[in-house]
Amino acid sequence: MKPIQQMKSALLLTMATSVCLAGCATKAPKYVRPDSPVPSTWVAPTTIVPPSQKAVADIPWQDFFVDKKLCTVIEQALKNNRDLRVALLTIKRFQELYQIKNADLLPKIDASVGAGLKRTSGSFSGTGHATTGQQYNVGAGLISYELDMFGRVKSLKDQALEQYLGSEQAQRSIQISLVSQVVTAWLTLAADRERLLLAKSTLASQQESYQLTKSRYEAGVSNLLALNQAQTTVDAARVDIARYTTLVTQDENALDVIVGVHVSPELLPQSLSDSLTALKDIAPGLPSEVLLQRPDILQAENQLKGLNANIGAARAALFPRITLVSSVGFSSSQLSGLFKGDSFAWSILPSISLPIFDGGSNKANLKVAEVDRDIAVAQYEKTIQSAFREVADALAQRVTIDDQVSAQQSLTDATSESSRFSQARFDKGVDSYLTVLDSQRSLYGAQQNLINARLVRLTNLVTLYKVLGGGGGVVQTPIVKP
Fold this sequence. Notes:
- By secondary structure, the protein is α+β, with helices and mostly antiparallel strands.
- The protein is 61% helix and 10% strand.
- The protein has 2 domains: 1-28 and 109-142 and 322-354, Outer membrane efflux proteins (OEP) (Single Sheet), CATH 2.20.200; 31-108 and 150-198 and 254-319 and 361-467, Outer membrane efflux proteins (OEP) (Up-down Bundle), CATH 1.20.1600.
- Helix 4 packs antiparallel against helix 6, helix 6 runs antiparallel to helix 7 and helix 7 packs parallel to helix 11.
């Protein structure tokens, strides 16, 4: 057999032996998903929309938020938001960590080429004369490869995989939260802009009433009290204009920060009334179908699985650890004879490390791993309970908010009629201006409350989208399969 073929055969034999000796099973306990610690149905009624509608987690955000300008702003946020960018980089980091642990299951082979020159003094050579020797070698071999007979390395690999999958779910959570933040900020800006328009419209009508009252006062038809009362309404509207102008600017700044870039004015909403159809309605589904699809719950379960695998690594540390170092190659004192004659050499150096006395540290590490797993179970159950509470609270508001908006609309319409009637009575001299002032204030307050009720209804839909795990198809990185 030729020398190169000898080296290749020995190397392949060493690798095959290593792989065969390495075990595949781990000593991790079998994972069993904890029972859900919440009721099987929501407390609030869920017959808001037809039950045939697919689950929120399967609805892409592009199908739920239908306003074109809003969708463009969301797309900009997904490209530029720094929190999401950090989450994506974190996924890549855990992916590479998983690849490192996965590579530990395979033998690592290094090649080496060396040449040496050595001079030996005469007193050591035994000849009385100094000698000079040369040595050439070329070879390859395993570098401290652990035979995973008890599954320690595989358990660590499984834990790294769950960390990676958990980071992917964390990215989903951040993305869903980001989308909901963008929509909420966009709707809040729309509401404040409508409040500003209402305040400006009210100021214009109040100034008109003030000028009319002033003319009546100068003509001796009205008194100074009515004139001062008219002035108070003008000043109150001016105060609101200044306040809502500040709020609108702050809303725009907040939206820019969330999105990560300056949002173009043409993408901003003009008023909330123009944005009432920007969102679709959604079906809540059942807790067992919804909660286990939420990324934060999936992340908690990944953490639980990872700590469950860590128990396997802690258990394997109680057993002997076998490490293999080997080499095959050629060595010769002359470069021309490196691949000739008996220059072929090989070595296998297995070592066994058996824990005999460690002061109880290995057993303590196993207990720590088991307690960590139990803590993760409690955290997983708490995450489910918190998610159930979030959805239940949002549904409790959802089933009444439409009635609230309808009642507020009716109240606003009635107050508007009352304001016109009181103004007509004042013009005919039947009522005082104080009655007109009270009715105008009531109308202004009712209009503001209607804007607020509409905003609450829309933000409630956004909240439901978020807490139900909405946004199917948001994953931006592939999942590494074990």
